[in-house]
Amino acid sequence: MSFEEILNDVGGFSNFQFLVLSILCLPRAILPLHFLLHNFVSATPAHRCALRSRAGHLGTPDFTRPDDGIWSSCGIYDAELTTGNLTREKNWTGPCPHGYVYDRSEFSSTTATEWDLVCEEHRLNQALATYFFLGVTFGAILFGHLSDKFGRKMILVAALAGTTMLGVTSAFSSSYVMFAVSRALSGVTLSGMSIIGTVLGIEWTDVKHRTLTGTIISLSWSVGNMLLALLAYAIRDWRHLMLAVTAPCVLTLISCWWLPESARWLLANGRTIEARECLLRCAKMNGKNASRLQPEFLDKAAASDVANKTHSYLDLLKTPQLRKITLVSGLFWFSVASLYYGISFRISGFGVSIYLTQFIYGAIEAPAKILTYFVLDWIGRRNGQAGFLIMTGALIAVNAAIPLDLSVLRTCVAVVAKGFSEAAFTTAFLYSAELFPTVLR
Question: How many helices (H) and strands (E) does the chain have?
Answer without folding.
Answer: 17, 8
